[in-house]
Write a structure and sequence with these properties.
Blueprint lengths: L1 H29 L2 E6 L2 E6 L10 E9 L14 E6 L5 E5 L4 E5 L5 E5 L16 E3 L2 E6 L4 E6 L4 E6 L10 E4 L2 E12 L3 E11 L5 E11 L5 H4 L4 E5 L4 E5 L6 E5 L5 E7 L17 E4 L5 E4 L9 E7 L2 E8 L6 E5 L2 E6 L4 E9 L3
Parallel strand pairs: 2-19
Antiparallel strand pairs: 1-2, 3-26, 4-5, 5-6, 6-7, 8-9, 9-10, 10-11, 12-13, 13-14, 14-15, 16-17, 17-18, 18-19, 20-21, 21-22, 22-23, 24-25, 25-26
Length: 360
């Protein structure tokens, strides 16, 4: 009886210890962040410990475009402007200097160029931005106050004229079925000196202005453009939520808005002021973008790894992990549709990657 009693006690002890380990493990996972509601805003405060320290993505290069071949006047990329990808995986690149759009297939093989310099149908000047919805390419041309439209085969469709320059969508990005455009202007003022004006606007599916999501101005006595450009917001979004960060050297927080521009959440993360040199401090966030799965990628300055491309990755406002993208030096990377596109504007070269989360 005594041996059986001892055995039962040991079994119970093992069960209790197992339950304790499970509870402690769950507690540790939850302890990476805290959530609270303040004035109907959900605040997620991350303490800097990754919720999934094993998270990373795997890159597979599927195409390379070499812009150094100057002997081919048709294919040569003289200046890479905006890049976008259609639903078939074809790549479209604006050549700013040549006023042409270059099309490549999903394997980055050259297909054709179209467009041209001028103000006639299908022609443009000073254009750096475009996007694709379904089979239509839309290009804002502020010099003519028109949205130019082509099909993805390069056939000109129409010019859509708009009439209010203050509400013209200069840099429209797809936001679900709508568009968002962020505009920055530096204008002189007799009393304030140089003033930095910033607007973030919402447009419908036909590029018609709906409302200002954000509008502000920054000025300082004696300030130059270089001083003011450090102000303002960084904005990115997935299909349903807008992420906005007001530049700061002291705080690390990101406001999250719904598709009506109403603030719903805020992401916070423990942060200490970081110097880039003996006199200057860096912004807590350098840039932001979202990937094909809606995760938020926040580019940060890592003083221990200043030559690496380091990102804080968030999912549902929770800090997942700090990730390094192994992209060749000189290339700037951007998530475009379901690909990662890396651009080297010094050599006018482009690398296209497929990516997926590594699961172990």
């Amino acid at each position: 009886m005594n041996s059986k009693s001892t055995l039962m006690k040991n079994i119970k002890l093992v069960l209790v210890l197992t339950i304790v380990v499970i509870i402690v493990s769950c507690s540790k996972k939850e302890s990476t962040y805290e959530r609270s509601m303040v004035n109907d805003i959900r605040i997620t405060k991350n303490n800097g410990i990754p919720a999934n320290p094993k998270f990373r993505i795997e890159l597979k290069e599927i195409g390379f475009i070499n812009g150094e071949n100057k002997t081919d006047s048709i294919r040569f990329l003289s200046s890479i402007g905006d890049i976008t990808i259609d639903r078939n995986g074809s790549l479209f690149i604006i050549d700013y200097n040549k006023c042409k759009i270059h099309k490549y297939d999903k394997n980055c093989n050259f297909v054709k160029t179209f467009g041209g310099k001028g103000n006639g149908p299908g022609e443009f000047e000073y254009v750096t931005y475009m996007n694709i919805r379904e089979d239509t390419i839309s290009i804002p041309n502020v010099s003519t106050m028109m949205i130019m439209k082509y099909d993805t085969n390069g056939k000109f469709i129409e010019n859509k004229r708009l009439f209010d320059i203050s509400k013209f969508p200069m840099y429209p990005e797809k936001f679900g079925a709508k568009y968002i455009s962020q505009t920055r202007d530096f204008l002189p003022d007799e009393e304030k000196g140089i003033v930095f004006y910033e607007t973030i606007n919402l447009y419908d599916c036909d590029f018609m202005f709906e409302k200002h999501l954000y509008k502000n101005e920054y000025s300082k006595d004696g300030a130059e453009v270089e001083d003011l450009i450090k102000k303002g917001h960084i904005v990115t979004f997935n299909d349903s939520m807008i992420f906005g960060y007001e530049t700061s050297i002291d705080n690390y927080f990101i406001d999250v808005f719904d598709n009506n521009g109403i603030k719903k959440r805020q992401i916070r993360k423990n942060y200490r002021r970081t110097k880039s040199d003996e006199e200057s401090y860096v912004n807590s966030i350098q840039s932001m973008q979202t990937d094909k799965d809606g995760r938020l990628w926040v580019s940060i300055y890592d003083e221990k790894n200043i030559n690496e491309k380091r990102f804080d990755v968030y999912n549902n406002d929770i800090f997942v992990n700090r990730v390094t993208l192994n992209i060749e030096k000189g290339y700037y990377s951007e998530f475009i549709e379901d690909k990662l596109v890396a651009v080297n504007r010094e050599t006018n070269s482009i690398k296209v990657y497929e990516y997926k989360q590594v699961k172990k």
